[in-house]
């Protein structure tokens, strides 16, 4: 399985996303089983946030992780903009840790930019890292201008990752963000890497080229989409699913290598941007 290095740890390039999980009590056991199946299939990274279900996703993750060794997992959560201040962040982090039933996070992300000055948020993230409650920190939904601003702040270049929306139908990062992150050795965490099952009408899963590549590899179209996202170094994909079977298929996509010819065919269908595009955020 392809791997990436993030916050000093080498982890499989496909992890587990948890957005929209924990919202339906009737699905609780199914969702826990899916997360546990992913870990059993080799996933190490589990990505969640205090925003997801107003803490319900973190509570679900906390329950799902109990049978496993905490040291073998790489746990990510995120702080909301309104909680990203010197006065509120630690209490927000403590609440996340309590829901997750752990005493530390491997990575704590600033979910998106709000009204708190970025310098204050960075300083507090740096301080929390010294407490041991977080092993590393990073950002999310940052565009290239935000990253440049971050790098100019004291300690800003200590960020361990940036998490942005990225999939075959949303390639804006290819123009500036990904080259900048590669130059500065900043890993990308790609959320919604399979476009939430064509939620935005790009018809990725019904595209003839995608389907043909899947057939060639005896893979699913979703596995092809994941293999495309992690085709380059230092990109970690975090697909979400509540299905055990789909979870196992997602993890297996880490072994799928697309040929240069196949990548060129996908580029033709979904071209690389030729100019700066607005950062996609959902």
UniProtKB/TrEMBL annotation:
<protein>
    <submittedName>
        <fullName>Aldo/keto reductase</fullName>
    </submittedName>
</protein>
<dbReference type="InterPro" id="IPR036812">
    <property type="entry name" value="NAD(P)_OxRdtase_dom_sf"/>
</dbReference>
<dbReference type="InterPro" id="IPR020471">
    <property type="entry name" value="AKR"/>
</dbReference>
<feature type="domain" description="NADP-dependent oxidoreductase">
    <location>
        <begin position="13"/>
        <end position="268"/>
    </location>
</feature>
<dbReference type="InterPro" id="IPR023210">
    <property type="entry name" value="NADP_OxRdtase_dom"/>
</dbReference>
<dbReference type="Pfam" id="PF00248">
    <property type="entry name" value="Aldo_ket_red"/>
</dbReference>
